[in-house]
Amino acid sequence: MRQLILDLAWDPVPAFAGFLPGDNAAVVAELREQSWPGAPVYLWGPAGAGKTQLLRELQARAIEAGQVAQWFDAASSTPWTLAEDAALVLLDGVDQWTAEQQHAAFLLFVEAASRMGGVLDALAEGVAGAALALAESSAAGARLGVQFVSAGRFPPVDLLVREDLRTRLGWGPVHQIHPLAEAGTRDALHQEARRRGLVLGDEVLDYILARFSRDLKSLMQLLHRLDSFALAEKRAVTVPLLKRMLDEEQAEPPSPE
């Protein structure tokens, strides 16, 4: 009987420390240094390019700074509510949203703009009004604006979404995210393996890259399963062990609906 291994969470790493930029170095540098709140940012590129990971890195940056970050994607049920102290809103997989989710995202933008508008109205009334608005904003948490960062497989102009949402998604900087080349993918897998305490030989990497999609997200999930399987088997990671894991996964009955 195989030993059961608890699915333990790994220690968090600093924001962007675990992201290999490849051809995206300029974008990563801008995201790392950007002041919040600012214009909405939109990231686009093919599946597996690293868009979701970049959103997670931004989430980690907010957490490090003691700020509240909200996450919404195609799996998030509606309605979506903007937290009173939200500093960062992350919107993932926008090209996969339903009509209800598109409407919910649009309302998030509207709510954030209305909060900002209240402060601007006070500023227009004069210094006293501005001081009061700033004091109220500090007490409420983050009333001076909210940073939005969204991601999808297509640029805003090609998204099949409602026009008022498309306008807001593409209002600020739009960055294309490029997938890692093979060398970068190898480095990413080696880096994650080292973080897990795994020895990942070249023969295992060659086997993985020759037979699986270069979608980095899928490859990381494969590595996670392989790590758990090797721990349960108390064996080193080898090609035969990987093959056995895949055979057993294929033989497992589908989970009930």
Describe the structure.
The protein has 257 residues and is of the alpha/beta class. The protein has two domains: 22-176, P-loop containing nucleotide triphosphate hydrolases (Rossmann fold), CATH 3.40.50.300; 182-251. The chain has helices at 25-33, 51-64, 99-124, 127-140, 163-169, 182-196, 202-211, 216-233, 239-251, and strands at residues 41-44, 68-72, 86-91, 147-152, 174-176. Strands 2-3-4-1-5 form a five-stranded parallel sheet, covered by helices on one side.
CATH superfamily of the largest domain: P-loop containing nucleotide triphosphate hydrolases
Largest sheet: 5 strands, parallel
- Catalogue the unreliable spans: 1-12, 118-144
CATH architecture of the largest domain: 3-Layer(aba) Sandwich
Radius of gyration: 22 Å
Strand content: 5-15%
Strand order of the largest sheet: 2-3-4-1-5
**Overall average residue pLDDT:** 82
Terminal CA distance reads 27 Å
Overall number of strands: 5
Features:
Rossmann fold; disordered N terminus; alpha/beta; five-stranded parallel beta sheet; 2 domains; 9 helices; 9% strand; 257 residues
Nutshell version of this structure?
The chain is α/β, with parallel strands linked by helices.
Topology:
Blueprint: H1 25-33, E1 41-44, H2 51-64, E2 68-72, E3 86-91, H3 99-124, H4 127-140, E4 147-152, H5 163-169, E5 174-176, H6 182-196, H7 202-211, H8 216-233, H9 239-251
Parallel strand pairs: 1-4, 1-5, 2-3, 3-4
